[in-house]
């Protein structure tokens, strides 16, 4: 195997690993919802947008015949759909959103996982010279850095009950 082929295989593997890691960050929210039998501070929108994103990338991967894109996004779509179903099961009919200067409602693990996944997919697109892979992942890098800045500016107060569920 030539050097470019090895690098491409390693980068493809990194994309799969980091992206599946990002998708699995919802497992702690899933566990929390099942144990608490309510959604508490779990946000719905990230599950929905990630599911739509997975289905879009799955379509593109199928058209392109790229098995890295197909496998990752098929698994992602299944996980996100599961998270959505569990959320809807435990969601109260009337949800209130309180806007504060608090990162309590943001997931630090999802922020890190999104940064790693977006960066690896951007590099993967760059190696393939495919702007359709590279460009859509740039906002993930940007928003991850914005969220990291928010975590720095507004540190999370520790919720002991929720923290224990994440370990």
Automatic annotation (TrEMBL):
The keyword Protein biosynthesis does not apply. It is found in: Cell membrane; Golgi apparatus membrane. Its main location: membrane. It is a multi-pass membrane protein. One of its GO terms (molecular function) is sugar transmembrane transporter activity. The keyword Manganese does not apply. InterPro entries: SWEET, SWEET_rpt. Pfam families: MtN3_slv. One of its GO terms (cellular component) is Golgi membrane. Gene3D superfamilies: 1.20.1280.290. The chain crosses the membrane at residues 6-30, 67-88, 108-126, 132-152. Keywords: Cell membrane, Golgi apparatus, Membrane, Repeat, Sugar transport, Transmembrane, Transmembrane helix, Transport. Belongs to the SWEET sugar transporter family. Mediates sugar transport across membranes. This is Sugar transporter SWEET1. It comes from Rhinolophus ferrumequinum.
